[in-house]
Design the sequence.
């Protein structure tokens, strides 16, 4: 049962119940929609990028606790950071959730609560949906999918 | 305990039973040996209670049900996706490949003859199982999806043209939507969708209102995989036939839950899949009413479906072979035959009654949990408990109950329009089969308690 409580940590449940930066963003410079066909999760992400820095970010959509919490945590962690740093963070996050369980992973601060998803291979896509959508938004792709 | 078990092929000694024919004195399905009562008959080893059904005895025939997952005994409630296989089916597959494997319909040698006999004997078992008039009317396919695609091409292409219409329902599986969309785009035809109500029942009047001189086919499920609704197929056929419209029924879900008699229903096409009938994956069938054959062109071209081939032209073999191009899944067909024998020995009436009792039990159990709402509450339904839980996404439910050893399906169940109709992104779905028990439902309820604990 410990994997379950590792996955559904209080931080994740809290972000699921009260997602941060939830809603739309007026004057967004970038936006993308992510879709996970497996569970039907849909996520719209809005970014305002000023001078290479994420000035503001919002997301909305419906999804499972993992995808919602991951989106919420992501928005918190990228706000105020510059775009290049955020792109690197995407890679670091991706590495963390795809490293096989049992192996050491980099400490990504608050984002590390999602490392538990490694015990649930089918849920990795839920955790990475927001990040893929972010990447697509920054590349100005209109729509992305984790499939 | 005696296992229901297929007779072995080629058993040594004079008078050994030929493939698929139990010889004199050989144990039949469900018999403990000569003179033993058949399953479910008075005097059977486990005496039946008035409403009793010996699921425990049946469970023993399914080896996979004895295994553990996640360190707990498996509670398998994903039967609408696929059912588990009894030992008799596993034995039949192994025996086919160990003893008589050969290609069919072409060799003069002993094995080819025996494989052909066994393959055609399996076709006869399917015929009997669905009540078709002749084995000619049974086409083997890979699955129900292929059966429906076969109709979309072989019947649809010649019979359905520009401006013609195909009527489906709002509860269809993607496999009974997409082939018609493809046909519609090939032929310039149009799909009309009969609505369902809040209980998940087909609105029959609305379906009737859609029928018009341009309607060339009504294609609906006999039973919904997402909701469990059983459709009034006799009425649908009557309405369509009164206007000269052919009817295809998708029997993927219905066929393993209730007795099916295609002649009594009167449908023109009946599609089903073997892996939900406790048979192997990769084998399915299509019933085609004899009179419909005259309107059908070949589907796939190749060996076995021809009678003669020259570079200028070819002529077609007789049905059903005309629609079975290439080497078929002979072992799969034989495995399916063994599965149908097994189901028949247990008795579909008994299975339906048992599953219905279980559905009632499960419905009450789920409704008693705070925040759980059933999706699909048709007055006539079978074996499907689709539900949502307030504040918890179905995907999270699936993950958490899986860790208690409970296998359910979560998602859109290949029926996205049904999810849209009920305004949910997905549901959790527990689906029942003959070997499920109230203990399985109790395990699900306990596991849902764990979901509540985690999510508060």
Sequence:
């Amino acid at each position: 049962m410990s994997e379950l409580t590792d996955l559904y940590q209080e931080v994740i449940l809290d972000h699921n119940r009260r997602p941060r930066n939830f809603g739309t963003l007026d004057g967004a410079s970038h936006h993308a929609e992510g879709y996970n066909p497996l569970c039907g999760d849909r996520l719209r992400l809005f970014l305002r990028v000023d001078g290479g820095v994420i000035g503001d970010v919002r997301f909305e959509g419906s999804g499972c606790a993992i995808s919602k919490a991951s989106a919420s945590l992501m928005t918190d962690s990228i706000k105020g950071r510059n775009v290049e740093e955020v792109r690197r963070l995407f890679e670091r996050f991706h590495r963390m959730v795809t490293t096989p369980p049992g192996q050491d992973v980099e400490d990504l601060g608050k984002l590390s609560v999602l490392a538990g998803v490694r015990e649930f291979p089918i849920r990795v896509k839920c955790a990475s949906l927001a990040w893929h959508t972010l990447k697509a938004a920054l590349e100005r792709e209109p729509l992305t999918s984790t499939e | 305990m005696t296992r229901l078990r297929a007779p072995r092929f080629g058993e040594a000694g004079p008078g050994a039973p030929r493939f698929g024919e139990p010889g004199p004195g050989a144990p039949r399905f469900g018999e403990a040996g000569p003179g033993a009562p058949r399953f479910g008959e008075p005097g059977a080893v486990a005496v039946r209670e008035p409403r009793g059904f010996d699921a425990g005895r049946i469970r023993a025939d399914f080896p996979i049900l004895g295994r553990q997952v996640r360190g707990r005994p498996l509670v398998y409630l994903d039967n609408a996706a696929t059912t588990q296989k009894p030992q008799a089916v596993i034995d039949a597959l192994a025996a086919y490949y160990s003893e008589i494997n050969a290609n069919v319909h072409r060799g003069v040698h002993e094995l080819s003859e025996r494989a052909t006999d066994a393959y055609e004997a399996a076709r006869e078992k399917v015929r009997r199982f669905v009540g078709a008039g002749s084995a000619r009317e049974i086409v083997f396919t890979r699955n129900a999806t292929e059966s429906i695609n076969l109709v979309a091409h072989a019947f649809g292409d010649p019979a359905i043209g520009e401006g013609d219409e195909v009527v489906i329902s709002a509860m269809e599986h993607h496999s009974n939507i997409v082939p018609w969309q493809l046909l519609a785009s090939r032929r310039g035809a149009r799909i009309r969708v009969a609505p369902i109500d809040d209980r998940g029942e087909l609105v029959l009047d609305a379906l009737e209102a859609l029928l018009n001189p341009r309607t060339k086919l009504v294609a609906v499920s006999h039973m919904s995989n997402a909701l469990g609704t059983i459709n009034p197929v006799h009425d649908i056929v009557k309405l369509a036939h009164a206007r000269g419209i052919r009817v295809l029924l998708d029997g993927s879900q219905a066929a393993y839950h209730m007795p099916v008699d295609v002649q009594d229903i009167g449908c023109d096409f009946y599609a089903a899949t073997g892996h939900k009938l406790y048979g192997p994956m990769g084998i399915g069938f299509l019933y085609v009413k004899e009179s419909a054959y005259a309107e059908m062109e070949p589907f796939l071209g190749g060996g076995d479906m021809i009678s003669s081939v020259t570079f200028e032209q070819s002529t077609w073999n007789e049905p059903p072979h005309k629609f079975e191009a290439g080497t078929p899944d002979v072992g799969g067909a034989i495995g399916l035959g063994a599965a149908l024998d097994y189901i028949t020995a247990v008795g579909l009436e008994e299975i339906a009654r048992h599953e219905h009792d279980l559905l009632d039990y499960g419905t009450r159990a789920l409704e008693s949990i705070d925040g759980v709402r059933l999706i699909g509450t048709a007055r006539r339904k079978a074996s499907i408990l689709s539900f949502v839980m307030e504040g918890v996404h179905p995907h999270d439910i699936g993950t958490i109950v899986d860790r208690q050893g409970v296998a359910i399906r979560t998602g859109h169940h290949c029926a996205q329009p049904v999810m849209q109709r009920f305004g949910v992104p997905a549901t959790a779905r527990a689906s029942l089969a003959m070997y499920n028990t109230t203990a399985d439902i109790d395990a699900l309820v306990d596991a849902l308690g764990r979901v509540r604990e985690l999510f508060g």
About this structure: Helices of chain A lie at 2-7, 10-17, 65-78, 83-98, 124-138. The mean pLDDT of chain A is 90. Chain A has one domain: 2-145.
